[in-house]
Amino acid sequence: MRYLISLILLISVACGASFGVSPIINNESKRVYLNYSTTEVITVTLTISNTYTLSTQKAGITHMLEHTIFISTKNFPAPFSLQEKLEREGILTTAATDYNTFQVQFQGRKDSLPTIINAINELSENVVFDEKLIENEKNVIVKEARMQEITNPLIHGIRVASEKALEGKIYPIVGYENEINNITVDELRAHYDELFALPISIDIIAPYTILEVKELFSEDEVITQITDTKIGGLPTDYEPIRFTTNPKDDEFTLALLVFPYTSTTNNDLPAKLIGAALGLGKKPLIGNSLYYRSVTVFRYGIEIIHLENEAYMIIWAYLNGKDAQKFERAINDLMLDLSTEMLDADFLAAKANLISSVDSIFAKWPVITLPSMQNPLTKDEYKNAISNLKRSSITFYPLKASIIIGAEQNEN
């Protein structure tokens, strides 16, 4: 196994004081933290990043692995018997997939860490792909895909943006029904093998000493920390890519505007800060800009998709077809204004908005691994990273693509 072990140290005492986070080992080949918590519940999160780079990647396949990874393993061949064993021992499991990350999280009693590590070893090496069982699970995934198509047209819009403007680099997470049904067992097995050949980050929060935790891992399971990747070299002299289904004036329409971004840092915080400046707060800049341009939208939002060495901010809106072009002009002008005249007040307000959102983020995941990095951050580290952002670290780029899709064309 190839593990990048990240164990975070957070010491809390009865009076509520914290001694902060400090590395136990930190040199060119190892970066090991221990996250010490007095809580009776421990949390272990397995994370694999940069999944979009895999040669076996295709629409829906990593999400299918999320659904099937617990079905059968070499030592627990009966359907879902490993998961049932963990549940009997009070260990709950959840899994998640996004455009670039695969995660499995375990929560259990403080004495369950060895069992969880054994389960991670089993999932990392011994998953069995039974064709009949996987075909049965496909039915569950197809139902999810159908519901998603009905409730979230944005998923379709991002797919079109990827196909028309981003060279197909953003793979749909769930996939359409025909794509799900066409994934073979051999393809899923090959994807699993390639996925688990990537570095694995295991983030542990538990009342253990570093020596106790190290006993659960062999020396070769701690590998060199992944080199941080910077985004750069994005062109500025291009014409925006345009794709439209020419919706009717009164037709429910999805508009997506794709902006590349870069920064002098190597994570997605600058883009999130831009997003906070645009869409958060009592007087969001997007809302104001659309209001003054008389653009009526039913809903709008921002998706930030960060790949290994490039990233995109997608600003989207549901609106009537007649307002799609006005929406593009309003947002494009706003981004150009921000790129040259982002006020200090806007910058500071955006930082405050981001920091205020951190608690809700960490309520779900105890540590955050930033895109293009395998080193997880605790809540305080994440807040400090936001606080340390400089205006000079943010660079804006012009519109890369405009995607306008009418409701009648929102089909697979």
The top-level CATH class of the largest domain is: Alpha Beta
Portion in beta strands: 15-25%
Structural class: alpha+beta
Q: Which segments are poorly predicted (pLDDT under 50) over 5 or more consecutive residues?
A: 1-34, 220-234, 369-374
Task: Calculate the mean pLDDT score and round it.
Answer: 74
List the helices and strands in order: EEEEHHEEHHHHHEHEEHHEEHHEEHEE
User: What would the principal axes of the Cα set say about the shape?
Assistant: globular
Topology-level CATH name of the largest domain: Cytochrome Bc1 Complex, Chain A, domain 1
| Gyration radius over CA | 23 Å
Instruction: Provide a count of the helices.
Output: 13
CATH architecture of the largest domain: 2-Layer Sandwich
Largest sheet: 6 strands, mixed
Q: Give the distance, in angstroms, between the N- and C-terminal Cα atoms.
A: 39 Å
What's the number of structural domains?
A: 2
Number of separate strands: 15
Q: What does this entry look like structurally?
A:
The chain has 13 helices and 15 strands. It is globular, with a radius of gyration of 23 Å. The chain has 412 residues and is an alpha+beta fold. Strands 8, 9, 10, 11, 14 and 15 form a six-stranded mixed sheet that branches. A five-stranded mixed sheet has the order 1-7-4-6-5, with helices on one face. The longest helix is centred in the middle third of the chain and has 21 residues, at 131-151.
Question: What can be said about this structure in brief?
Answer:
This protein is an alpha+beta fold. The chain has 13 helices and 15 strands.
